[in-house]
Specification:
The chain is an all-alpha fold and 109 residues long. The chain has five helices and no strands. Helices cover 73% and strands 0% of the residues. The termini are far apart.
């Protein structure tokens, strides 16, 4: 995903990993285990929206993204996911588990 976004957004044809492939695979695996795929995907998408490359650093690597940008972006992503989950739970409980029957609701009015 990261190499594809670098190619699409920055025109980087050859992805060069930060500190080598083993380091990047390790940080990605740890982030996936700790936060989950959906949260990590959203964090990567936001990082590419917010980060601006320079001529000195023409690409955004997974190692840099997870080591330096994730601590700033991930709390926002997790808070939004928790809020959406609570809202879905609240709406689902009210709509699906209504304790009043239709006749009881009509009687109230």
């Amino acid at each position: 995903m990261i190499s594809d976004l670098n190619r699409e957004l920055y025109g980087v044809e050859t992805y060069i990993p930060l500190r080598g492939w083993a380091f990047e695979q390790g940080v990605i695996k740890r982030a996936l285990t700790q936060y989950g795929a959906e949260a990590l995907r959203e964090t990567i998408t936001r990082a590419f929206r917010e980060h601006r490359v320079t001529p000195q650093y023409p690409q955004l690597t997974a190692g840099f993204l997870i080591a330096y940008l994730l601590p700033r972006i991930m709390p926002v992503v997790l808070a939004e996911q928790a809020r959406a989950s609570k809202q879905a739970e609240y709406c689902g409980n009210n709509a699906d588990n209504n304790v009043l029957t239709d006749d009881e609701i009509i009687d109230l009015f």
